[in-house]
């Protein structure tokens, strides 16, 4: 299989990589870049566990070929934490107990971040819409919605 040269900026760091023509972004992130916070759940774009942000848009990385995002800026869950500590979303998820088994959490955080980056004061319905592509088997969603609301309030403060 032919290898393609791609350049990606992931969590602020530039990478020049060789990828297969059919290699998914999820596999590149996990296998080549060793960033394993992005999870593989369903492999068909239904669960949201693999959500990352590509050029400011939340996408299911299992449904995107790496070659399609050549030249893009990508943020994974590992890109949330900074030198000053946890991101306000991460803090809110902990505070509101929005983490149960944790498998869906990276995707939920990334979908929430994409929302708050474009809409820092979302309504409850806008939060629900932004998260509707992310499945959680443990929380019942209310704690997650509460956490996103809390993070939005902190962001606006």
From TrEMBL:
GO molecular function per UniProt: 2 iron, 2 sulfur cluster binding; metal ion binding; oxidoreductase activity
Keyword annotations: 2Fe-2S, Iron, Iron-sulfur, Metal-binding, Oxidoreductase
Matching CDD domains: fer2
Naturally occurring in which organism (per UniProt): Halanaerobium saccharolyticum
Superkingdom, natural source: Bacteria
The keyword Iron-sulfur is assigned to this record: yes
InterPro entries membership: 2Fe-2S-bd, 2Fe-2S-bd_dom_sf, 2Fe-2S_ferredoxin-like_sf, 2Fe-2S_ferredoxin-type, 2Fe2S_fd_BS, Beta-grasp_dom_sf, Diverse_Oxidoreductases
Domain 2Fe-2S ferredoxin-type stretches: 4-80
Protein's name according to its UniProt entry: Carbon-monoxide dehydrogenase small subunit
Pathway(s) of this molecule: Alkaloid degradation; nicotine degradation
């Amino acid at each position: 299989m032919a290898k393609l040269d791609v350049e990606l900026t992931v969590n602020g760091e530039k990478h020049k990589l060789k990828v297969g023509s059919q290699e998914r972004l999820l596999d590149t992130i996990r296998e080549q870049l060793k960033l394993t916070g992005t999870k593989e759940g369903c492999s068909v774009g239904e669960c949201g566990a693999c959500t990352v942000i590509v050029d400011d848009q939340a996408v299911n990385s299992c449904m995107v070929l790496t070659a399609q995002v050549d030249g893009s800026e990508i943020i994974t869950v590992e890109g949330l934490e900074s030198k000053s500590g946890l991101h306000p979303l991460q803090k809110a998820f902990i505070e509101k107990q929005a983490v149960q088994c944790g498998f869906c959490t990276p995707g939920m955080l990334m979908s929430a971040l994409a929302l708050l980056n474009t809409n820092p004061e979302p309504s409850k319905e806008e939060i629900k819409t932004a998260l509707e592509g992310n499945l959680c088997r443990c929380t019942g969603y209310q704690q997650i919605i509460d956490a996103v609301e809390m993070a939005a309030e902190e962001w606006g403060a």
